[in-house]
Amino acid sequence: MYIRSLSLALTLSVSSLVAACAPVQQHPVASASAPTEQRAPVTILVSIDGFRPDYLTRGVSPHLNALASGGVEASMRPSFPTKTFPNHWAIVTGDRPDRSGIVANNMEDESRPKDKFTMASDDPYWWNEAEPIWITAEKQGVRTATMFWPGSNVAWGGAKAAEWPYTISNGSRPSDWAQFNEAISPTQRVNGVLDVLRRPADIRPQFVTLYFDEVDTAGHINGPDAAQTTQAVADVDAHIGNLVAGLKALGQPANIVIVSDHGMAAKANDRVIVLDKIANPADYRTVETGPYASLAPIPGHEKALESALFKPRDHMQCWRKSEIPARFHYGTHRRIPPYFCLAETGWVFQNTTPTRPITGGDHGWDDRAPDMQALFIVNGPAFDRAFRPSADFANIDVYPLLARLLGVTPLASDGDATVLQGLVKP
Ligand code: AMP
Ligand code: ZN
Ligand code: ZN
Prior knowledge:
With 426 residues, the chain is an alpha/beta fold. The protein is built from twelve helices and 16 strands. It folds into two domains: 42-265 and 365-423, Alkaline Phosphatase, subunit A (3-Layer(aba) Sandwich); 272-358, Gyrase A, domain 2 (2-Layer Sandwich), CATH 3.30.1360.180. The longest helix is centred in the middle third of the chain and has 24 residues, at 227-250. Residues 50, 84, 216, 220, 363 line the site of one zinc ion (ZN). Adenosine monophosphate is lined by residues 49, 83-84, 105, 119-120, 148, 150, 180, 182, 211, 213, 216-217. This is Phosphodiesterase. Keywords: Signal. Residues 1-19 form the signal peptide.
């Protein structure tokens, strides 16, 4: 009630200010005697795409380091494959890619032969196999807002018509969401988060996501060790500093969970595996190439393809999807192509001999490779700073943590609630 009348008073005072055109006005926005609202902590999930935990030691991230030393920091194992969409979805659903259905950044599905999934796909069909935390939260009365997160623009649970105008029926989204756009600056994103938290309590989110892409982009273009990547770390760190300062100015306590989806490793000209040199292109079609290659056989050519792929070779290994080693937890979903080849970290598959130099960085390799490990920092009143996550802690365990912070009952998932149990004060 108080909040409503305060915002009304604010609106009135601002409009009378404009009407009067007074050059100098003592505006009574927040009088010293007005009672300050006791805000409940908000949970903020921040993703810094492609942030390798050792970037924290480059001496350019004072705000992240302060959050780490005032909270808890750990290296977090991503899910396989160490790609952006599978891992962002794993963090918010608790399901590994093999179960969540977001098995790659680019996908095919035999049930939809005419369709392909790309990172721009908002058709709920691709996303509906695992429920993200913002949907679970909204169902249980917790208001959510996303300033970008893969899948947060999707009408989850809905259906998209196969024909123009491709109407999407049913489905739900966070109360506040935004269509991803790389051109929306990090400053705008941080301000967007602070703006929703400035609202009256009845329309203010209790869970917010925030996403930064520049560290990943710099890592791809220049490589993880480049000065430009370090500069991107410094830039994002400054935005984190603005977020923290903005929260403080608002008097908004926050339980902040900062993650990355995967790390980054350097590529090189002399670490390329050319697929058409090891197998006959008449026998296969590639679905994805890069740190791994996924292949579909040309019907009737399976034997020829297998004898080429399964020869022992340096720096790579191929499997039938059903025989991918169990530790990857990958290979049962229908969207995974029949053959899967993984390169040694730092090596990449290309369809044909590269015509341009192979430089920069990439990710997608073994989820246990040191360079693929992900960032995890928590800071806020809910956390027990003495807690140390076990070495086996993986990103699917973040989902039960988020549910606990939000006070919602999580769905069953691949995530194990006991792994980070001690991280939250009883
Ligand atoms: P990757 O190709 O795995 O390195 O993916 C990183 C890229 O994903 C970023 O540079 C973004 O452009 C893109 N991306 C991140 N979030 C989204 C989103 N919500 N929707 C579409 N693209 C996204
Ligand atoms: Zn990524
Ligand atoms: Zn990337």
